[in-house]
What we know:
heterodimer, A: mainly beta, eight-stranded antiparallel β-sheet, globular, B: mainly beta, 14-stranded mixed β-sheet, 11 helices, 45 strands, elongated
Amino acid sequence: MSLVFQIGSLIINDIESLEIEQSYEAIGGESIFRAADGTGIKQATWAKLRVTTSGSGWLPPGLAALDVSQQAVLRCIVPRAIPCVGQQATMPAARRSDAGHLPYGIAYLADGQAVKTTAALVGNMATVAAVAGAIAYAALYFPELTVWLFQPAASGNPRDASHRWELVAEEV
Amino acid sequence: MPDGNWQSRSLLCHFDGANAATAFTDQKGHTLTAIGGAKLTTADKVFGTASLELNGSTDGAWTADAGGEFALTGDFMIEFRFKLTAAVPVNSRQVLVAYGHDAGEQNYWEVAITKGPVVQAPILLEFVSVVGGAKTTIYGQNGPGDYCSVNTWVACCVQRSGTTVKIGNGGSQYGSGTVSSLMAVAGKRLDIGCNSKAGGTAQDFASARIDELRISDGVAEYTFPYTVATAAFADTGPAQSGFAALPIILTVARGGHAALPIELAVMPAALANGSRSPTQSFAGAAGAWALRVLLDGADVSNRVIGRVTVEAEEGAARLADFALRPAAGVALDLGAWAGLPVSIDLCALVGGAAVWPQRLFTGVIDSADLDLSSRLLAIRATDGLETVIAALDNAALATLIGGRWSDAVFDPAATGLAYARDRLSTVPACLDLDPYRQPRLTAWQAKGAADFTHGAGQAGDGSIALSPAERSSLVNRVDIAFNYRFPRIKAESHAVAYSYVNMTNFAAFVQADGWFLTREAVVQAINAAGGTPLGAISYDALPTTNVPVGSGFWTPNPAVDAQLCMGFTADVTFDYGQSQEEAHAITVQNAASIAAHGLRPESLSGALEGKAPDPDTAEIAAFLYKADIKKDIPPDVATPQAGMVVEKTLTLTAGTDRAAANAAMACLIDVAKTRIAAAHRQSRVAWQVVANAHLDVDKTLALNAGGVQARGKVRKVVHVLDPDSGSAVSTVEVALSSLLGVGASHPDTPTAAPAGTSDATSAISSSPLVVYNYGSSQDHQITITFPAVTSTARDNKVTPLASAYDAPILEDLFTVTP
């Protein structure tokens, strides 16, 4: 089952996103106060995610129908990883739990290979299934965020029936 | 009963709950995760409703160490009840409680049941400490026998005091040894019932039930043997005791009810005393902070946009500036915003929540300007220093400020801030409001020990700014001109002795038809001169027997002779007043400053007129009394002395008398001293540090960075907090007074008014002249001419009086080594 990018009830179909790229950017207050002897004192306030999703396909997605004055649930399509302590890692609660987008594990082998494996969840605790020869594990998940949407950008080329779009969202 | 060592408990699990439950509760808040089929059983327990059931093959539980609470590097206690539920196999190990196990097994501690390689080997309880791979094991057993039996509940305790570890069973000591050090690695796993290998392949499963597990860090309570607990461990600490100050301002509308907003925040001691701020890194973690802004009692923090600035300056109102997004869909009445209460707290951001608030500002909105393009309200708030002070009466301000006051120096009608500032002019201190809007007086004198010291690791790079005082702003001498005018009454007494005939020339006088002087004429002559006989006049009586005169005799006539006299003696007094004017020239100075910087003078002046009943009335009253016409002793009478001028200061009204004049001069002297001290604390050093709510104008700060060593009272602090960038910075400015160097002392003449003039008594240098025309052809008039009262004795008398006082200067630490 292929991964699906969804904003609220709007699903971006594969033909609308033959190419798709999603970036996560941490936004928030953080600065380093430098003392006279060079000591850095880090200060931070809130931290949220900005998700920029861009894609292209043969058909335009229906992004114009999005109501950017309302908060929306953004189901991301690019997974994020959390290294395991042993075989376990604590997942953030804001993650996708729909079919095909459940958390899963990666086992890293000594020869550099990475093998996908399953992950069992109890609450937010993921336990990655053991893989023989693994030297480390990671748990991956697809973020599901409540966001404010910015007006999407779209363009197209009727000569080659290609359409490009971009949507920026920031975690509420 | 509360647990007096509750703060030292790292973990407390009663293992109570429903049968087969897989959720286990730690009273200290850790989240326990079951391993395998670990569950509660209500069928067998020591206390409460259940115990933890472990099957010896797959079961266990674990939780994560949060901040080293399971590392147990000092004294500790590991206590629990357990029951082995199966025979202990030879060559076996069953972990009961352990911390730090992972794949590498280099640093951990463990409490485990073991049995050696032969059937006869005893069941031992082991405490194992591994530090950097080096293992120390302490064994517990009952003499040479087993530590415990199977299927029997055991009260197990492993306690370390100093470096001695003791293993107990039922309160008895079953083993001891020395463990010099334990692993000091935080953030690992606490295992119960197995070695979970930090999520790897678990091993050493215990076949047992465990109940009432408690781990304590930093305490060793037991002295073996001891009596084991007969009830579950307490899971609360004692109630807080002691007294706390509660600053409260209640504003009640007419006929309304007073609301008492109270917030109690329990926070780490370092935050409470300011040695650490939420805005600074701690234990390797970034300083996560947040602001809490309350507007009219409602939390509007989520509508505050951008930077928040709070500025405090000694003697001035505290100000706050921030931008606020108005509530959506609500019509704005900008006029209603002014006066709304505002508070701003700096909080730590823990788990996404703003906790441990520290007050930065309490006040009211002064102005709210709407920017229509950004739809933001620019709020300016003030702590309303003037309003708060105005609500205090003069008596309360006098108590708060101390100092001196004189109606002759200050406006007697002054109240509120004007009165406060007048009093403050005599005190080297400043008056302002604390962050909770409570009035406070803070002396300019820096404390001997700084409240906070900032070195190169705290002061912002490139933020140190020096601003030495300018000579033009110095004042090191104040010349005070104070005139005090008041009336004095004088009694001038002349002794008059006159004789125009005696028994030697009596006959010749009679033969020459001389006229005898009448006594009445004497009195009239005295009165005509303006004098008053003091007491009775002594007359020289005529002879009472026949006196031969020529061929005949002069024969006395008693009826007539009684009205005559041959001479008289009298003390005659004149009472008059004179206005006195003391012209005080008071010099207050600091000689060391004059020597160093040259003379930098200022002037002050004052005057007071002593008010008394009309001096003319006083003169008349004295006259009538001395003339024996009025019997009432007037309040002001100069006691005459013959041949002397005696002075007496009239009784003056309260507020204009000598005490009032002295108070006025003392007031001016203190004003001068304060002026000199103020003029010498114009040097400034400013620097930036991470924002700290405890930095305020009542604090003494020390700086030792960038070649600058300074310690002085904070004059100004500006907190700038920017949630968008994460930057939270306080800029502090201290006032420094330095002339001779810290430790040098300056003379300080005690403030007491200089002495004024005193009533004097002086001798009269001239004598009255008596002329009696007694010849038969003369007019038979007697004239007594007294020495005239000179204009000098009667006109306003100005007496210049000079005095000098030393004024001290504060000496703050202030050295600069470029």
